[in-house]
Design a protein that fits this description.
With 470 residues, the protein is an alpha+beta fold. The strands form 6 sheets. Strands 11, 12, 13, 14, 15 and 18 form a 6-stranded mixed β-sheet that branches. It has a 6-stranded antiparallel β-sheet with strand order 19-20-22-23-24-21. Strands 2-3-9-4-5 form a 5-stranded mixed β-sheet, covered by helices on one side. Strand 4 and strand 5 form a beta hairpin.
Length: 470
């Protein structure tokens, strides 16, 4: 039985200070519908822009992970996202009134506790996983970073190794055998830094929200009493010493391998930006935010390629179509020479598949590169739009009395040339449910197994009388 998607039951708010900006911020988790994913909403900015938690929106990984979209950014998102993944929440809107997620104690604990307090609601849609199909590798030889995703029969297993050539830190390992271990084994592990990094950050006026309560500071050099006194003054503490574990005595370790566990926590948060939960085993040596994000992009590209392959319909010319061209003309108002769909093969509430046979005797070839004929890209888009029009008009009981007017076409890409003799199969899928007569669709055109065109389209259903009045 497939697991169902989940959102939170009750809204819950957390407030704190951003580690790097030093700015206070409150964030509120709100329930979200199926297939919503994780989104941030900057409620402090004009227009309250939305930022999708998507690896394609990552704008900085220098001191944590920052995402940007619609003219807005939110930084240090990894601990919060790790908590959502660890608590197996699929859909949530995070409203935030500042540029950075509060650091809290440097771990995910405050976020997992808040999510637990909010509770969860099981939704009606199955959770979609990306099952790692084969070993996938990523490396950065200069930083000695190695990451691999491997197939696993079930579950999400993670293993992390860190080694900074530090006599204090040494080589550490951390692992969980399934994501349901995250809260008990990983969530409480705090971020860490070396003393020399801390001093450099302070000198550059960074970590404005750091107060030595939210990080493990590893002492990797001899430190004089004068230096410790200066640090104590800087962070408003009575005194600071070096503990026997080789860390500043500002805090006590929660786990002997807490730094390795925190690196695993960061991996979970950064890989959440792939956009769907994983079934597989992720192993990493010396990972960091930049490597995590680069690996997430590689996995997302594999997901996209696999989805596109699955969406390529198989076309059997001898099979009886759902609608032939005469039946299409009963639905669409278009007529030759401006009717560019010959058959409809599939139609559901959320998708449609249509066929265009490209022949040399079509009128536009007379003037469109007659010596080297190419099916015009603008007509490919029109044929895709007409295919989508069948899907949109299928939602009304009397399609002859309606028109489909296209409001916007975005992200058009022409992947390969289409020539006379080719058969283009168009598939259009709703990107979200139709609301107030507005439909948003993703369209893909293929010749054989090759994608030749793709686009995102927005259309509106309009009654014929209304369009005449307009």
């Amino acid at each position: 039985m497939n697991a169902k998607q989940r959102t939170i039951r009750n809204e819950v708010t957390i407030s704190g200070v951003g580690l790097h900006t030093g700015k206070p911020a409150s964030l509120t988790f709100r329930a979200a519908p199926e297939n919503h994913g994780y989104k941030f909403k900057r409620v402090d900015l004009e227009g309250t822009p939305i930022i999708d938690a998507d690896v394609d929106n990552v704008s900085d990984t220098s001191r944590g992970t920052t995402i940007s979209q619609n003219g807005a950014s939110v930084s240090t998102i990894e601990h919060l996202l790790a908590a959502l993944v660890g608590m197996e929440i699929d859909n949530v809107l995070i409203e935030i009134d500042g540029p950075e997620v509060p650091i809290m104690d440097g771990s995910s604990s405050f976020f997992t506790d808040a999510i637990e307090e909010a509770g969860f609601v099981t939704q009606n849609v199955d959770r979609e996983y990306y099952v790692i199909p084969h070993n996938m590798h990523y490396s950065e030889p200069d930083r000695r970073v190695e990451m691999v995703a491997m197939p696993l029969d079930d579950g999400y297993r993670l293993t992390c190794m860190i080694d900074y050539n530090s006599p204090v830190l040494g080589s550490q390992h951390a692992s969980i055998s399934n994501i349901d271990e995250f809260k008990s084994e990983i969530a409480s592990s705090r971020t860490f830094c070396f003393l020399h990094e801390l001093e450099a950050l302070v000198e550059n006026n960074l970590i404005k929200g750091g107060d030595l309560n939210n990080a493990i500071v590893i002492v990797d050099k001899q430190v004089s009493e004068d230096e410790l006194t200066e640090l104590a003054k800087l962070f408003n503490r009575k005194d600071i010493k070096v503990a026997k574990e080789g860390i500043l005595n500002n805090i006590e370790l929660r786990h002997q391998n807490e730094p390795a566990r925190h690196k695993l926590l960061d991996m979970v948060g950064d890989l959440a930006l792939i956009g769907m939960p994983i079934k597989g085993h992720i192993m990493a040596a010396r990972p960091g935010h930049a490597a995590n994000v680069a690996f997430a992009k590689k996995i997302k590209a594999a997901i996209k390629k696999e989805k596109n392959k699955k969406r390529i319909p198989t076309y059997d010319p001898s099979a009886k179509p759902l609608y032939d061209v005469v039946q299409i003309m009963d639905i669409l108002p278009h007529r030759p020479p401006f009717l560019f769909i010959d058959k409809i093969l599939e139609l559901s509430k959320t998708h449609v598949v249509g066929v265009k046979n490209v022949t040399m005797n079509e009128g536009f070839f007379e003037g469109h590169f007659p010596g080297a004929p190419v099916f015009p890209g603008v007509i490919q888009v029109e044929a895709m739009a007409q295919t989508g029009g069948i899907l949109v008009l299928s939602t009304v009981p009397d399609p002859r009395n309606y028109l489909t007017l296209f409001l916007k076409i975005d992200n058009v890409r022409f992947r390969a040339q289409v020539s006379p003799g080719d058969t283009v199969v168009f598939r259009c899928d709703l990107m979200e449910p139709i609301r107030r007569g507005i439909a948003q669709m993703k369209g893909v055109g293929t010749v054989g197994e090759k994608v030749v065109v793709e686009a995102e389209m927005m259309a509106q259903i309009v009654r014929v009388k209304d369009s005449e009045t307009a």
